[in-house]
Amino acid sequence: MEKRGAMVRNKRVVLRDYVSGYPTEGDMEVRKGEMKLEVPRGSKAVVVKNLYLSCDTYMRLLMNRTAVELLKPYTPGSPITGFGVSRIVDSGHPNFKVGDLVWGTTGWEEYSLIANPEALQKIEHTDVPLSYFIGILGMPGMTAYVGFYKVCNAKKGDTVFISAASGAIGQIVGQFAKLMGCYVVGCAGSKEKVDLLKSTFGFDDAFNYKEERDLDAALKRYFPEGIDIYFDNVGGKMLDAVLLNMKVRGRITLCGMVSQYSSDSKEGVTNLMHAIYKRVRIEGFAVYDHFDEYHKFLEFLLSHIRKGKIVYVEDTAEGLENGPSALVRILNGGNVGKQLVLVARE
Amino acid sequence: MEKRGAMVRNKRVVLRDYVSGYPTEGDMEVRKGEMKLEVPRGSKAVVVKNLYLSCDTYMRLLMNRTAVELLKPYTPGSPITGFGVSRIVDSGHPNFKVGDLVWGTTGWEEYSLIANPEALQKIEHTDVPLSYFIGILGMPGMTAYVGFYKVCNAKKGDTVFISAASGAIGQIVGQFAKLMGCYVVGCAGSKEKVDLLKSTFGFDDAFNYKEERDLDAALKRYFPEGIDIYFDNVGGKMLDAVLLNMKVRGRITLCGMVSQYSSDSKEGVTNLMHAIYKRVRIEGFAVYDHFDEYHKFLEFLLSHIRKGKIVYVEDTAEGLENGPSALVRILNGGNVGKQLVLVARE
């Protein structure tokens, strides 16, 4: 293990400049640097060794020059940030001691100095893969939990549609919906993902949206009686087609709109009138409002994971230098399952 | 009063053919006919003399060939239908007797045979204008009541924005919001209407959207801290601008989208992502789901009207032959207040 006080190499993934349109690997750069593994004297900071980093679609929004609610843009020339699983290497904070495993926001680099570590969560359950704490047991899992159990207002027998269904959040939502006794259909962007939805996650059905020329017709095929709940991870054209297929008093839970994050001209949604005809509720939510329920969520998920009732598929890029391509991949759908970067084994 | 059994002249407003785009007077035709004031022997029908007919924007949707939920298209060549205040001239139904005043769905004609009169409401309060029963005490009033009190989830101090604010529904919603202690701003399409909002209905402020080149900037001027509640009667560009100005956990109540009813190419809403950032709830509703509360609503409104706490402005076209132009007018905003057609005085 690294020695407190040592000077070590510190590779970093830096954003070159603000991005418009689809990001490419070239928008980021892996730079070499050094770092002393020591917190400033008298500070409450921690120094961590980053083990796993999470690729999440919201990170694209931080590459824009303009900030939106909750999302402060990245600083060009500095390492990008995101969720990670890390080990404490030095600590000036009473809550954390050297050797502790934590998850929370960290830098895309081998080692990070975290000035305000209060938001870090200690990892105390090590009978599950550590990487789960940036996936099913971290922000994406909590997002699925809050979105499904608190926003969707689902009940047994509801017909549920999920977009980006094999992704970090979608695969969990689908399994929650099956546990509740819903009829669940997902869409994804490749045959491999569609097979995964049906064989591994237990969706009742699934389709490859890229092979459908008419999304409205595709939805009518899978939901001849209409959709009670749409868990939306993509926005845009799919949301527009779903609006034509909602049941009376259906619910649309807006979780993400990855189809819109990288396009300079947004796709307009033209069918909102159907939300009146069908008395549909459309609701956006932010997982950050609900972290007071994290421990309740964690016990619930751990119990289901241990019993094998919920599974999680990850797509792991090995090495920080493969981080930029992994991050680009989740924005064009090249990943299969939750995308993460393995920075260092223990 | 007309004699039961008499043969009378019966002018009718007939839809010539399905309409695309903005309707014109020429899409309708006033035809002359005759009618015997007698229900078929053994039937439970009623024959009514129509006194007031209501011009409502949803009627545009019935001019389309394609049906949507709840809205069955008109039949070209037959009289159009809508809400009206009428007097029973003959009755085969035990609930109604000759001379009763009723409101409900009737034909755009001088006399109508209503085969299934169960949905008609008897008018028992005659200390208010009869025309109120197709306005503030009828469907538009009930829509304002349900939309504001049941869907908006408003509370004292909320900032409320209302589009088409001087119309049949908007003027009531604004007064409800003021009664609750909200800050209320409305938009409308002329100086006369803007003045009405401020002077007669007590809105805190109002603006003419036609004079604003940048709706986002206009909304920021009236709501520097953002909007808690948007009561949407228009959809389209205004809804898109409002999405940029919602407060965290704001509510958008979708009541109508008159800007979209007559346009063949719908304006896309591009800012739905902000409903995620701000955790906004967008909800469509239909007044037809709530008519079990009509009597509760009626007592509430009558009490406020009698005390002078709520007022109602009507725009009356005299004579059935002026019906088509009145109906066209509400779709291009030419009316000031609730548009109705006076077919016959008592």
Summarize the structure.
Chain A has 346 residues and is of the alpha/beta class. Chain A has 10 helices and 17 strands. In chain A, strands 5, 6, 7, 8, 9, 16 and 17 form a 7-stranded mixed beta sheet that branches. Chain A has a 6-stranded parallel beta sheet with strand order 12-11-10-13-14-15, with helices on both faces.
Polypeptide structure, described:
Two copies of one chain form a homodimer. The model of chain A has no long low-confidence stretch (mean pLDDT 96). Chain A has 346 residues and is α/β, with parallel strands linked by helices. In chain A, helix 2 (139-151) packs across helix 3. The first copy, chain A, starts with 6 loop residues before the first strand and ends with a strand. In chain A, helix 4 links the parallel strand 11 (183-188) and strand 12. Chain A has ten helices and 17 strands. Chain A has two domains: 7-135 and 313-342, Medium-chain alcohol dehydrogenases, catalytic domain (Quinone Oxidoreductase, Chain A, domain 1); 139-288, Rossmann fold. In chain A, 24% of the residues lie in helices and 26% in strands. Chains A and B meet through helix 8 and strand 15 of A and helix 8 and strand 15 of B.
Could you name the key traits of this structure?
homodimer, 346 residues, alpha/beta, Quinone Oxidoreductase, Chain A, domain 1, Rossmann fold, 2 domains, seven-stranded mixed beta sheet, six-stranded parallel beta sheet, 10 helices, 17 strands, 24% helix, 26% strand, globular
